[in-house]
Amino acid sequence: MIRPSTASSQENIRKHHTDMVSELSEMFSLKSKEWRSICCQVKMMQYLSTRDMGDVKEMFGLCETLKKKGIIKYGEYSTLQDILVKCDVEAGKTIDKYTKKICGESEGQPQAKRQRTDEGVGPQQSTGSDGAAAGSLDLSSFITEESWRRELKTEFTKDYFKGIESKLAGDYANKTQVFPPKDRIFHAFNVTPFDKVKVVILGQDPYHNDGQAMGMAFSVPPGVKPPRSLKNIYKEITNDDKIKNFTTPSHGNLEAWAKRGVFLLNATLTTAAHQSNSHAKYGWQKFTNRVIQIISENCSGVVFILMGNFAHKKESLIDETKHSIIKTAHPSPLSYKKFENCKCFSMADAALLMNKRDKMDWSL
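^ thats the sequence. predicted structure below, dont judge the formating
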């Protein structure tokens, strides 16, 4: 039986959620240009199927549909924020305001009775900072892109993948902060469909500082200053006289590349906050090695850009008779002199053309 104070807190959480959606509804009317842009982004990012989109006629419909699919939960609105803030910065502030209120209500509940209303987690289950009940994490549910789900369905059932789920569930239960957020672990997969992959850029593990990791190698969310490695990548493209129409952006968000077929894959997909490469032994590399092999086996004419010695070790996973491999130093400041003037991006374009594919648009 839930104590009255807990029931009251749950009611307040629902009210905060409803109030947030109401405020967002006032920002985005159904007929506005901004709303149409939101719907397009949802489609492109493939959070929702065409059938689901039929329920999205206004803000309440969008939020309810995302919640039913488990993409957002009470107090966990990173996906919603990512969609809306691109159209109106004030939307992000509104979401932040209500997220704090909801988190405050959750923290105010008695520990033994604390529940997640949206997930049905009972008082006997331990939940972590990212909302996962210990031992119950289903990572595959966060890959929403159908072609990747089809290609990887066998991997989801293997013992090593269950081991990754178990380790992460333990982290969440122990309130260990893990980057990126759960709904961004497979962001590269959800934005770049399997059958659209043209170029693979391999990184090592996610950024480990606050607010940087977004589930794509080298990329950071809008509003986050580009890290030094990414700045060096920008510098390399700018200095490559064979690449036209590239202006160095002030942001570090590489989603535009991903949507054009650049698969930004980290070898390890999660890390503990402020601890570089801390999940290297979780089993992620078995998974991402298999991802590379699946691309190699089932695609043709893909260009693999392997940056640094770590990435070079993946060369044996790639069929060089079907694909192109470009090896460079890592763009880190520590090895930039070796990376400088490597021309890897124009070389990728040349390889694509040789394979009778369109070269990349590297603009951002």
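Residues 1-5, 109-129, 131-135 have pLDDT under 50 and may be disordered.
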